[in-house]
Fold:
Amino acid sequence: MREFSVSSFPQMFTKEFDRRVHLLSAVLGLSILMGVSFGTYALWPSNLETGYRPQQPIEFSHAIMAGKHEIPCGYCHTTAEKGPHAGMPTLKTCMNCHERIQPRDSRGGLKPGIAALLDHFSSKKPVLWEKVHDLADFVYFDHSRHMAPSAGLDCADCHGDVKSMERVERIHSLKMGWCLDCHMQPPPEGSPQGRTTRAPIGCTTCHR
Ligand code: HEC
Ligand code: HEC
Ligand code: HEC
Ligand code: HEC
Ligand code: HEC
Structure:
């Protein structure tokens, strides 16, 4: 018969068993880590497909500026019809009006957005607007191609009713399926002859 002693205790678990426990805990640890990273990535606000509406450094209301006061989109997004990017207004563009128009609240103080605007302008501090829409870099997109009369589109087809938004919100996923859904529709009146879809769907249209 074998005698048990303290020194024989480690042998209670075979080497093979030990190896398996280590492997199992490594796999478990790794999957928890991966799960957490994936969850963080998927739920991180700027990675949400729709509904992303970040706070901006100056509370800028499209509902007031583009809606109530009907300033045309192109007044501020000057290159949307001419180039790949819609473009952002410079503070000088804002000051075309706000040099004079400086609304105050009921207690006589400048509206917070106006105070922030004047502060940025006088100290020449650029405003870093948070991007609401941001396509993957490997995708080619051009605003002017979509604003051409033959395309028959409006800003609202892709951005929604910005005129009524207090804060801009991403309402479409900007995923490949979204682009293709529209490109695959039958061609409208005035589209280039001989095309069976509304817009080209070859891979190199958007991946070049
Ligand atoms: C008076 C200037 C002004 C006018 C007019 C204006 N915008 Fe903007 N727009 C801005 C500024 C400033 C921002 C950045 C801050 C923000 O997101 O609110 C912006 C942001 C946006 C964004 C989000 C950009 C991004 O980061 O993805 C969209 C989309 C947009 N505007 C569409 C429109 C449309 C459509 C119209 C017309 C209905 C319009 N804008 C009229 C100034 C203007
Ligand atoms: C074409 C003229 C025009 C331009 C350009 C313009 N605004 Fe305005 N803005 C107005 C008018 C009009 C009002 C409303 C004034 C009032 O309520 O009495 C206003 C109101 C505002 C307010 C106050 C909103 C509130 O009531 O809380 C902010 C903030 C503002 N603008 C920011 C900007 C910024 C930032 C830009 C540049 C990206 C800009 N505006 C460009 C005309 C303009
Ligand atoms: C066919 C869909 C489509 C139409 C129509 C469209 N946009 Fe866009 N817009 C996009 C996409 C996609 C992006 C993101 C581009 C990127 O990240 O490179 C974008 C980005 C923007 C931005 C952020 C700055 C930039 O250029 O990346 C602004 C501002 C904007 N659009 C305004 C407008 C305005 C104003 C109109 C109408 C004159 C308009 N868009 C029409 C799809 C569209
Ligand atoms: C709401 C409809 C719509 C959506 C959404 C849309 N497009 Fe388009 N796209 C068009 C139309 C219409 C044309 C122009 C077809 C024509 O020439 O008449 C076009 C043209 C293009 C062209 C130029 C094709 C060429 O070779 O002439 C590119 C590139 C393009 N789209 C990329 C994209 C990408 C990338 C997305 C998604 C991020 C997208 N589009 C989303 C309707 C759309
Ligand atoms: C109308 C524009 C458009 C066309 C045409 C298009 N793609 Fe894409 N593609 C996109 C956009 C936008 C994304 C980015 C999606 C994202 O950010 O997740 C993308 C992403 C991808 C990805 C990365 C994986 C993914 O799904 O995010 C692959 C791979 C891909 N495209 C392959 C193709 C192939 C192959 C074709 C031709 C059969 C094609 N694409 C045609 C717009 C287009």
Remarks:
- Residues 135-136, 139, 175-176, 179-180, 183, 201, 203, 205-207 surround heme C (ligand 5) (CB under 6 Å).
- The radius of gyration is 28 Å.
- The chain has a mean pLDDT of 89.
